[in-house]
């Protein structure tokens, strides 16, 4: 890798560190290519990405970025999992770590907040952006459906009373 490629990689990593809602750092020593491809596929499905980069270049890219606190975790064979959604990468990484003992979460960052492994686990348990939007829409829509039900209730009550009266007359 020549100097121009290294500079390009540092720029790419810098953009990743700035744009990501969460960055998770983990060791992946001993993982097979198939396991790594599985992790990448799960992360892509959740809207995140996985990146393996040289620790030295990643540390250079971290300088001056909000998540610079993760530089301490960049030792050994590390992989970066990241996503724009502040929860997606943490959820996938935590789930994958439970099923694969060779994937060990070291920590991460959420904006300028440093996360230890317990912090990454806590972030993973938070609802995702889509889940929050769905619950807010549900809360907003519930009163409207209650009003519609209340407005429609007298008409259905009258219809049931009329049906009852018709049945009495027929009997």
From TrEMBL:
Top-rank taxon, per record: Bacteria
Q: Which GO terms describe its molecular function?
A: large ribosomal subunit rRNA binding; structural constituent of ribosome
Q: Which keywords annotate this record?
A: Ribonucleoprotein, Ribosomal protein, RNA-binding, rRNA-binding
Q: A GO BP term, please?
A: translation
Q: Entry's InterPro entries?
A: Ribosomal_uL10, Ribosomal_uL10-like_sf, Ribosomal_uL10_bac, Ribosomal_uL10_bac_type, Ribosomal_uL10_CS_bac
State one Pfam family annotation. Ribosomal_L10
Give the GO cellular component terms, alphabetically.
large ribosomal subunit
- UniProt function note: Forms part of the ribosomal stalk, playing a central role in the interaction of the ribosome with GTP-bound translation factors.
Protein family: Belongs to the universal ribosomal protein uL10 family.
The UniProt subunit note reads as follows: Part of the ribosomal stalk of the 50S ribosomal subunit. The N-terminus interacts with L11 and the large rRNA to form the base of the stalk. The C-terminus forms an elongated spine to which L12 dimers bind in a sequential fashion forming a multimeric L10(L12)X complex.
What is the protein name given in its UniProt record? Large ribosomal subunit protein uL10
Q: Which organism is it from?
A: Paracoccus shanxieyensis
Gene that produces this protein: rplJ
């Amino acid at each position: 890798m020549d100097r121009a490629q290294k500079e390009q990689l540092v720029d790419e990593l810098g953009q990743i560190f700035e744009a990501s809602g969460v960055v998770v750092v983990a060791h992946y020593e001993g993982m097979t290519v198939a396991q790594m491809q599985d992790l990448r596929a799960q992360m892509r499905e959740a809207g995140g990405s996985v990146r393996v980069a040289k620790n030295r270049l990643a540390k250079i890219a971290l300088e001056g970025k909000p998540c610079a606190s993760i530089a301490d975790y960049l030792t050994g064979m590390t992989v970066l999992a990241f996503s724009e959604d502040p929860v997606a990468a943490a959820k996938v990484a935590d789930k994958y770590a439970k099923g694969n003992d060779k994937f060990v979460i070291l920590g991460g960052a959420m904006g300028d907040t440093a996360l230890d492994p317990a912090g990454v686990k806590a972030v993973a348990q938070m609802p995702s952006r889509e889940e929050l939007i769905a619950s807010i829409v549900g809360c907003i829509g519930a009163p409207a459906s209650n009003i519609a039900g209340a407005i429609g209730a007298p008409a259905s009550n009258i219809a049931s009373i009329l049906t009852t009266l018709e049945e009495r007359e027929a009997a």
